[in-house]
Design goal:
This protein is an alpha/beta fold. It has helices at 2-9, 31-41, 56-62, 68-77, 111-120, 140-147, 186-193, 200-203, 236-252, 283-299, 316-326, and strands at residues 14-16, 23-27, 50-52, 82-87, 102-106, 124-125, 153-154, 167-170, 177-180, 197-198, 228-233, 257-262, 273-278, 304-308, 331-333. It has 2 domains: 2-198, DHBP synthase; 228-333, Rossmann fold, CATH 3.40.50.
Length: 334
């Protein structure tokens, strides 16, 4: 922990576990450290970073103003998987905020993350510790896969608990807006601060019909495996029948196929690599396993991947947001 603090103070980079995903940390108030983060990830420099803090005083230091609703949310959900967008103070360099006048701030609950921030005294800018475009890392192995040799240290805290990035809420407008769904869902936020909007981009569901998946526009692809991923929606029987038909004919043509299945439906699939993403009874399992499963697809060099849909439930919108992006919004309804 002491060594990690020293690295951060010198402008170096430390990957560390949080309760959501692993973060790639650098000193948020040091523009050179931010530049290093972008370089290590291969991330476009207009995509802003989240600043991680460990006490409320720092929230005031980093922002121009803290509205009542932000305080209420901090009170309820911090430390925890919630990020708030607020007007930035001058002290926060534009390199950290991707040129914006606003700053994203979160207080993580993972003991290692919390202690790293507290003991180093540094506000830690940390995007997810993956190469840009790849699924976020939920274990130290994932971080090493993507960033080994490009950063100064990885703190291995085992597998993360939640497995999907924090909920992002923009508090700079009149109505608070969810910019990224996460573990803290709309209903939970509304129970604390009243009505909350959702960025229409999140709700967009572009459907491309046709049996054979086509590679969608890259701009919609994030968290994406290299293989072609399609979500198949419908009754369990129809989904299994459709997927079995597709995987059988693709395998016959010499392609490698895989199925992302819930625990409940594992036995319904007959062809290809069938992976259990978790039980529908415990959607926290599905959230925690999703990125690891997507990475397994690359490892096994799968060409075509078919996934069940996991809409509904309190984590449904967060899970489907990531899965839809990974699939480039390619959904087949059967
Ligand atoms: O759970 C998490 O939030 C993880 C862990 C490490 O804390 N971090 C994370 O960071 O997911 P990253 O960089 O992968 O995602 C940050 C997201 C990006 O989509 C970025 O565009 C958005 O936050 N963001 C950051 N600052 C923003 C701002 N000022 N306005 C709007 N969006 C912002
Ligand atoms: Mg990320």
């Amino acid at each position: 922990m002491a060594e990690a603090g020293q690295i951060l103070k010198k402008g170096g980079l430390v990957a560390f576990p949080t309760e959501t995903v692993y973060g790639l940390g650098g000193d948020a108030l040091n523009p050179e450290a931010s530049a290093r983060i972008y370089a290590a990830k291969g991330r476009p420099s207009d995509n802003p970073l989240i600043v991680h803090i460990a006490d409320i005083k720092t929230l005031y230091k980093l922002t121009k103003s803290v509205p009542e609703k932000a305080l209420k949310l901090a009170d309820h959900f911090w430390p925890g998987p919630l990020t708030m967008i607020l007007p930035k103070a001058d002290i926060v360099p534009r390199q950290t905020t991707g040129g914006l006048d606003t700053v994203a701030i979160r207080m993580p609950s993972h003991p290692t993350a919390f202690e790293l921030i507290r003991s180093s005294g540094i506000c830690i800018a940390a995007p997810s510790a993956n190469t840009s475009g790849r699924p976020s890392p939920t274990s130290a192995d994932h971080v090493a896969e993507d960033l080994s040799g490009r950063i100064d240290m990885i703190i291995d805290g085992g597998r993360v608990e939640i497995g999907l990035e924090s909920t992002i809420v923009d508090l700079t407008g009149e109505m608070p807006m969810i910019l990224r769904p996460g573990y803290v869902n709309k209903a939970m936020l509304e129970a604390v601060i009243g009505e909350v909007g959702v960025d229409p981009v999140i709700l967009a569901d572009q459907e491309i019909k046709g049996l054979r998946p086509k590679a969608p526009g890259m701009k919609y692809k994030h968290y994406a495996p290299k293989g072609d991923l399609t979500i198949v929606e419908g009754t369990p029987d129809m989904v299994a029948e459709t997927i079995n038909h597709l995987t059988a004919s693709l395998e016959a043509e010499g392609y490698k196929t895989a199925v992302i299945s819930s625990a409940e439906h594992m036995s319904a699939y007959r062809t290809g690599m069938v992976v259990n993403v978790g039980s529908r009874e415990q959607e926290t399992q599905i959230a925690a396993n999703l990125y690891d499963v997507l990475r397994q697809m690359d490892e096994a060099q799968i060409d075509y991947i078919y996934s069940e849909s996991f809409a509904g439930g309190s984590l449904g919108s967060a899970i489907m947001n990531r899965l839809l992006k990974a699939a480039g919004h390619h959904v087949m309804r059967v």
